[in-house]
């Protein structure tokens, strides 16, 4: 029997979240105020992640995997200051982080999360 697939905040190109078989897959999220520094953008992105996880029926304590893209590894320490405060103690997900060319030059960080329901 096929498991249902639920798509949240969908348009023709993407869904902000996809729920399947007890797992939530979030699309990459970026800051709305791109004039903010890395810490400000990271706070905005993690707030969006929290909102999307809540809409899917879960929260960051059930995060399984986090992928973080930075526009430059020079932002690594500043992003980590905010990220480390966001993580639920004792429940850190698997994580990777790297620098890539993001969709626009004023995007400093993009974050994807996979979580259990």
UniProtKB/TrEMBL annotation:
Q: Which domain of life is it from?
A: Bacteria
- Entry-linked Pfam families: Ribonuc_L-PSP
User: Cross-referenced CDD domains, in alphabetical order?
Assistant: YjgF_YER057c_UK114_like_2
The UniProt entry, under InterPro entries, shows: RutC-like_sf (IPR035959), YjgF/YER057c/UK114 (IPR006175), YoaB-like (IPR035709)
PANTHER family, per the entry: PTHR47328, RUTC FAMILY PROTEIN YOAB (PTHR47328:SF1)
Protein name (database record):
RidA/YER057c/UK114 family protein
Could you tell me which species this protein originates from?
Answer: Bordetella genomosp. 13
């Amino acid at each position: 029997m096929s498991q249902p697939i639920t798509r949240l905040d969908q348009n023709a190109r993407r869904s902000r979240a996809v729920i399947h078989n007890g797992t939530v897959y979030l699309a990459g999220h970026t800051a709305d105020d791109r004039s903010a520094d890395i810490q400000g953008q990271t706070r905005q992105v993690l707030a969006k992640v929290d909102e999307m996880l809540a809409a899917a029926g879960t929260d960051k304590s059930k995060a399984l995997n986090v992928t973080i893209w930075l526009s430059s590894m020079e932002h690594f320490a500043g992003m980590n200051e905010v990220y480390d405060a966001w993580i639920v103690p004792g429940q850190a997900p698997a994580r990777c982080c790297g620098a890539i060319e993001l969709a626009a030059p004023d995007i400093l960080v993009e974050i994807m999360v996979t979580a259990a329901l």
